Amino acid sequence: MFCDDVWKRSARLIRAIHEHPFNTALSAGTLDRERFAFYIVQDARYLEAFSRALALASARATDTEDAVFFAESAHAALAAERTLHAGYIEEFGLTADDLAGIGTSPTCLGYSSFLQATALADPYPVLAAAVLPCFWVYQDVGTTLLENTAGVEDHPYRAWIATYSDPAFAESTERAKNITDRLAATTDDATREAMARAFFRATEYEWMFWDSAWHRETWPTAEWLA
Ligand SMILES: Cc1ncc(CO)c(N)n1
């Protein structure tokens, strides 16, 4: 099956995601607030783009059940942004003015733009494969973090871990995988190859997203603009 195949081929990259210092510190509860705040602000922006890509997947779906799934997922992404992310942003005391002053990072813009370009310009099966790692990687990391932090009381990032280890999110991940497998099975070789490339690119961006939060990535050219 397509999903099993691309997941196996991503094994080393997935391991690197699990072992990234951002995620090991997130798991240990030692991740500093500055890095997590950077991540949450960028991720709130990412989720708006992800939601748009999902809404476009819903519009382009050839199967009504798939259209429902993608529309619900588009809504869930924005709902997460308005609860989980907005909750942390409030906890960190970031005002609307603070947020307006924080630039979207190169990686966040790259990942967001990649998803939206795929949504608008690539075949629908390629779009399904591009959004799949957004579900699968988070579900995988979320459940691992839940296992690793099971006995920990008052984990500072408990709400984040709970969101992505939720059985409902695992169910969505299964749905996204099933849709992608069905589309891969019924398309041509060239499209299947493009699906694999989109899956790998999105998974690379997932690693980069955590890495960019760890380093609090900025635009190297920012100082030359007024
Ligand atoms: C970067 C990224 N990928 C996936 C998810 C899960 O939807 C998220 N919140 N952020």
What does this protein look like?
The chain has 226 residues and is mainly α. The chain has helices at 2-9, 11-19, 21-28, 33-60, 64-91, 96-100, 106-121, 124-148, 158-165, 167-185, 189-214. The protein has a single domain (2-17, 32-217), classed as Up-down Bundle (Heme Oxygenase, Chain A). The protein is built from eleven helices and no strands. The structure holds 4-amino-5-hydroxymethyl-2-methylpyrimidine. 4-amino-5-hydroxymethyl-2-methylpyrimidine binds at residues 43, 46-47, 77, 134, 138, 206, 209.
Number of strands: 0
Residue windows where pLDDT falls under 50 for at least 5 positions: none
Helix proportion of residues, in percent?
A: over 70%
In the CATH scheme, what's the topology name? Heme Oxygenase, Chain A
Radius of gyration: 17 Å
Query: Looking at this structure, what is the CATH superfamily?
Result: Heme oxygenase-like
What coarse outline follows from CA principal-axis ratios? globular
> What is the straight-line distance between the termini?
52 Å
Mean pLDDT: 96
Taking the sheet with the most strands, its summary is:
none
Proportion of residues in extended strands: under 5%
Query: In sequence order, what are the helices and strands, one letter per element?
Result: HHHHHHHHHHH
Individual helix count:
11
- At the first level of CATH, the class is Mainly Alpha
The class by helix and strand makeup works out as mainly alpha
The bound ligands are: 4-amino-5-hydroxymethyl-2-methylpyrimidine
Which oligomeric state applies? single chain
- Architecture (CATH level 2) name: Up-down Bundle
